[in-house]
Amino acid sequence: MGRYKRLDGKDEPIIEPEIEIVDSHHHLWMHPTMPYMLEDYLSDAAAGHNIVASVYVETQAFLRPEGPERLRPLGEIEFANGMAAMAANGAYGPCRACSAIVGHADLREGGAIGEFLDWAIRIAPERFRGVRQVTNEHPDEALYRYFKHRPPRGIMEHPNFIAGLKELEKRRLSFDASVFHHQLPALAKLADAVPDLPIIVNHMGLAVALDMDAAGRTAIFEDWRRRLREIAERPNVSCKIGGLGLPYWGFGLEERDEATGFEALAALWRPYVRAAIDAFGPDRCMMESNFSADARSCGFVPLWNALKWSVRDMSAAEKVALFSGTAKHVYRI
């Protein structure tokens, strides 16, 4: 495993610094190898890219230490809302971090999860926007070494799961879906079952090509692209463009000790970025940093440069949608 690369390339020239960015996905946590708190994020946001706001996404951090198990994830929402209040004060700079909050909830509780959701809305009425429950499943046990909290199997197939999703739908909340690409058909069935629920595919559905040769990666790419196009036929589904610094894609950047600049990143990432945008269209895609998880592979500044470079030939209106407009609409920022 390579080193933590968060600050790599921090002096790179900023591509199109005027582009307004709403970072649609990042974490704050005391991760043992990638700690990342509000001051870290705001420092990165001030490094040159025009990050005006962000979406906090759960990692089951800062849970309440006591009380009913179902309600303990409220502690993370309380934490994120406090961080958002600090950022909104303006004393730390112009970025309004955590403007929207996606919390964790166990939707296998079915209708009973409504109590949790109502508490979450009361805690952060201006910011709580939905739930993510990580549902990644893969037969390769080695993949789970990258998980902070390994998810149980069979979550999406649980008999109460759709009822839990409907509790989100009733409250005009959304569902962030963390799946591997072979799970996209199962997610598409859920999207059909709850057609008025906004569902956001995290990290473009993570095409798993870890430890594969070039031919294997090509085959996975084609399978991933086909499945992504199929789920994109559901109008209630949108897609986060990013997470490409995670090891699952098979780029191997996490194993490198040397810094990787934006052009090298874009050369690897652009086919995936453009395939996702081609499937969903810019109005249903939103760019994400996925920091600090993606700092396994690259720095914050090169990451955003690479995403901008990957869409450099797109129109100004399309870039507005990709970098801020879609996130503002989906998360009501």
From TrEMBL:
Pfam family, one: Amidohydro_2
Domain Amidohydrolase-related: residue ranges: 22-333
InterPro entries per UniProt: Amidohydro-rel (IPR006680), Metal_Hydrolase (IPR032466), Metallo-dep_Lactonases (IPR052350)
Any GO MF annotation of the entry: hydrolase activity
Transmembrane segments: none
Family (UniProt): Belongs to the metallo-dependent hydrolases superfamily.
Name assigned to this protein: Amidohydrolase
